[in-house]
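Worked problem 6 (solution included).
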Amino acid sequence: MATPHVSRTTSLTVFPKTLNPSKLLELSNLDRQCPLHMYLIFFYNPSSAYTNSSLDSVFTKLKIGLEETLSVWSPAAGRLEPNPADGKLNLRCDNRGAILARAVTDVKISELGDLSNYNEFFEELVHKPVLDGDFCEFPLVVAQVTRFGCGGYSIGTGISHSLFDGPAAYEFLSAWATKSAIFKDNKEQNEVELQKPVHERGRLLMGSVPNRCSGKRSAAGSGAEAVAIDHLYKLIMQSAMGNEEMEKKEYGCRTLRVSRGMIERLKKKAFGENGGFACSSFDVIAAHLWKARTKALSVSKEKTVCLQFAVDARNKLKPPLPKGFSGNSFVLASVALPAKQLEEESYKTIIEMIRDAKSQVDDDYVNAYQLGLDGPQASLPPLNELTVISDWTRMPFHKIEFLHGEAAYASPLKPPILDVAYFLQNPTDSQAIDVRVTLLSQTLDAFSTYFLTSIQ
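Solution. The predicted structure is:
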């Protein structure tokens, strides 16, 4: 394949079809954790449905659909705004719009190979406006529709993590696809199931969070200690004490497909042929990933290593968040061990620790986590001792029908925090899980070997 190139032909601001009164939306500390954009690319293979449809037609329908969607999802058309008093970010809903770009390339989708594996070319399929020094001018939603030489399309989206978490982003993109209805015969019927979003952070705002923190964890496991934040601080201190080099290093991405059979073999490895107790696919793959990643990175045996994973607090709070809540509601649960113990410990024990960490996420934990984020925030350097997992298996992004049928794949770009691994639903096998990791390039082969050994 010749050197791939994408030519961007149009870039414009899309405003809400119906303008909403300008207002300030107060964000929670969960929203403020990561104001950077998350980029996701939807690939749609060539289809006979596209034969008589030009790029102009597809672009116009996407633009109209986005205008309608922004009228309902009004924060997506706003901008982040720091509070003059404390510098904390809030969101000004002021109808300033999203950015939609149009592009073409001679490349064929088939020439990209396995779409589940990251390709540097993917970076040309998203629109990244220049920050130009003023963070508050940066649009919260950006998108690019690209027509390929084969007649297929990609739609690359970028959404500020301060705006939505994963489930909310899924609902927003689903609403946009439905309202665009590019190749659907009955648009009205497709809109019936749309969930009305709730944008107010309400219960998650610090002023409304009861301060029931006692500083100690109860014997029952609930209490007010935000274990994940405590573990993270200890890792940062451990790294600083070791005088570890922080020079720029090259990181690569790789996706490993874990079939249903591989998952079953992992479970048997953990619990034997007779099982013992039910175990989720997430628990067993998370335990295996943690072990393999730590070994591949050659972490010193005396150092503490930590596994953190996102837990949705929507139904953990009392009362639970309303249906359609569009903000960030995820907190991190955490398990920490010396690297030597992680290597020697049984899968069963590690899985039990993961399950215990999940069970600790309750109303008090979320309150304490929020309070722990109330101090000054700083960007986190990559830490070999930290493994973070973001589970997207319940968000089947590939099923969002921007064009004709489901996407061939929905591929995230490199995450803002390089220690994050994604668990993705596989488009062709609902029983399989795609594990996307970002690691130092020279360790990818070793990780793949350790991860796949004994489960292939």
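Discussion: The longest strand covers residues 6-14.
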